[in-house]
Structures are given as structure tokens and as C-alpha cells.
Design brief:
This protein is an alpha+beta fold. 40% of the residues lie in helices and 21% in strands. Among the domains are: 73 residues, no CATH class; 108 residues, Immunoglobulin-like (Sandwich). It binds copper (II) ion. Copper (II) ion (CU) binds next to loops.
Length: 260
């Protein structure tokens, strides 16, 4: 039941990524389900073989075999029944408690100093991501190895935002903010999708997700600016500004050099 911590470089704390947490829940359920299945099916097969027709099993049970319409008296005073009920109860209640406590971690991950926060807005039929500097982009850019908080809402109807590979998913509801997070282990490209049937374009309501390494994320982020709508347009504007500043300074230097 313990949650082993995975220290992540630059994460400012120990965080487990959701894919790992959900993977653990999956394997525990699969393992226990398989074990219970093997016991139940094995016991059934054992008994159907043991009591097969014409088998040479003990005839003691023939003596007190119940007649048709008569309730069997059972043997062992219901011990078997009590045992199977208790084992089932322990397994089921244990699973419920363990799963909930594990999911609480997803609800409330440990604090990290350098988590970043991105606003996500859904609309028929696409997503817009807004960064702390006001940059808006149709592509979700995020760094690897850093906890990313998503504040998700909608401009029109109910949507549901999710990135399947990163095991993150939450409602996008107009007038309401849903908060969720993810943590990507490594750089890569994924696709965010809408999980709530929201109209005729629902199936193409996707958005590219680009996970950068920290350096290239910083580069991308530095290329954006507060008033921008498109990262491409912004990069161009920054370039022009630099170009405009460059010659002025040179001219000034040349002028200063000429005058003496
Ligand atoms: Cu949608």
C-alpha cells in the first residue's frame, strides 16, 4: 500500500507520474483477478472431475444425498461458506481501500516549486492553451520531468479533455474550472482528445501535445510573448524587433566612432 517515491531531476520534490500509478492499479487488479479466477476455475474443474458420473469416489455422500426438492444440509456447519465469504470480503474491501488511497495521490500530488500552470479552453471543435505569460497556442507545449497543472474549462458546451498516453483526463465545462495534472517522463509527441460527445466535429477535436526537454521548452517559451495569439507569429515579431534594434545600435556606434 506504500507509495514508493521516485525522485525526479528538477521536479523540486518526489513525484510519481500518473501513468505509473494507474499502471500499478491495473497490474494489481489483473493479478488478483487472475489468482481468484485460477482458484475458482481450478476448484470447479477439480470437483467436476472428482464427482464425474461413474467415478469411484467415496460413497459416503450417497447416503445423505438430498432428494429432489429437499434443501441440502451441508457439511462442516457452514465453515466453507463462512471462509469463502470472509476471503472475498477481505479481498474486495482491501482493494477498495488501497485503490482509493492510491487515487488520492492523483487528486492531490505533492507540492513542487517549479510546477507550471496552463489554462485549457475547449470549444467546438478544438483546444486553446494559455501560458502564464499570456501566450495562446493550439498546441500544448510542456517540459518533461516537470509537474504540469491544467486548468480546464469550455467556451460553449460540455467537453472532456484528456491525453491518453499521459493518463490525464478531466471535464471541460463552461463557467467551471476543472483542475488536473500530468508529468511526462521524457520528450515526445502525443495527442490530446475530447472525451465527451460534443457535436458533429467531436471526433476531430484533437490537439497536438509536444513534450520538450527543459532546455528546448525554455527556448520555445522565450520565443513567445504576452500579447501573442500564435507562437509562429510571435517568433517572427521578436525577430523583427531584434533586427530593428541591431542596426540602430550599429549606426550609433559608427556615428560615435566617426565624430572624434
Ligand atoms: Cu468536445
Amino acid at each position: 500500500m506504500g507509495i514508493p517515491d521516485v525522485a525526479l531531476a528538477g521536479a523540486g520534490g518526489a513525484i510519481r507520474n500518473p501513468a505509473e500509478v494507474f499502471g500499478e492499479i491495473f497490474w494489481v487488479f489483473l493479478g488478483l483477478g487472475t489468482a481468484v479466477g485460477v482458484v475458482v476455475i481450478g476448484y470447479t474443474l477439480y470437483n467436476s472431475y472428482k464427482y464425474r458420473e461413474g467415478a469411484d469416489h467415496e460413497t459416503k455422500s450417497d447416503v445423505d444425498r438430498p432428494e429432489l426438492g429437499e434443501l441440502p444440509s451441508g457439511s462442516g456447519g457452514g465453515k466453507k461458506l463462512a471462509l469463502s465469504f470472509s476471503i472475498s470480503a477481505i479481498i474486495v474491501i482491501g482493494l477498495i481501500i488501497w485503490t482509493y488511497s492510491t487515487l488520492l495521490y492523483i487528486e492531490d500530488p505533492p507540492d513542487t516549486e517549479n510546477a507550471i500552470e496552463i489554462q485549457v479552453e475547449g470549444q467546438q471543435f478544438g483546444w486553446v492553451f494559455e501560458y502564464p505569460n499570456g501566450e495562446q497556442s493550439p498546441t500544448l507545449h510542456a517540459p518533461a520531468d516537470r509537474l504540469v497543472w491544467l486548468n480546464v474549462t469550455s467556451r460553449d458546451v460540455f467537453h472532456n479533455f484528456g491525453i491518453p498516453e499521459l493518463r490525464t483526463k478531466t471535464d471541460a465545462i463552461p463557467g467551471q474550472m476543472s483542475r488536473t495534472w500530468f508529468l511526462a517522463d521524457e520528450p515526445g509527441e502525443h495527442t490530446a482528445v475530447c472525451y465527451e460527445l460534443c457535436g458533429s466535429g467531436h471526433s476531430r477535436m484533437t490537439a497536438p501535445v509536444v513534450i520538450h526537454d527543459n532546455e528546448s521548452f525554455q527556448e520555445w517559451y522565450a520565443s513567445t510573448s504576452p500579447s501573442g495569439n500564435q507562437s509562429d507569429g510571435e517568433a517572427g515579431m521578436d525577430g523583427n524587433e531584434t533586427a530593428a534594434i541591431g542596426p540602430t545600435t550599429t549606426t550609433g556606434a559608427v556615428a560615435a566612432g566617426d565624430s572624434p
